[in-house]
Amino acid sequence: MHLTGWLPRGMDDRIASERAASVGIRTSPLSAFRRQTSGRGALLLGYAGVPERDISEGVRRLAQALR
């Protein structure tokens, strides 16, 4: 299962994905799945394999990485 995490306008989702990876969170930039070269950035976030107790910590680390 996945969800789309929309980023603030102007934030590059490929850079955001790299920042997430730097804190151990694997994401995919939504721009990798579209043909257009422009549009609002987003991260594709998978959560099916993540224990519920770990999700809050992951969200905290992701937010810190994207600041």
From TrEMBL:
Gene3D superfamilies the UniProt entry points to: Aspartate Aminotransferase, domain 1
Domain of life according to the entry: Bacteria
UniProt-listed InterPro entries: PyrdxlP-dep_Trfase, PyrdxlP-dep_Trfase_small
Protein name according to UniProt: Transcriptional regulator, GntR family domain protein
Origin species: Cystobacter fuscus (strain ATCC 25194 / DSM 2262 / NBRC 100088 / M29)
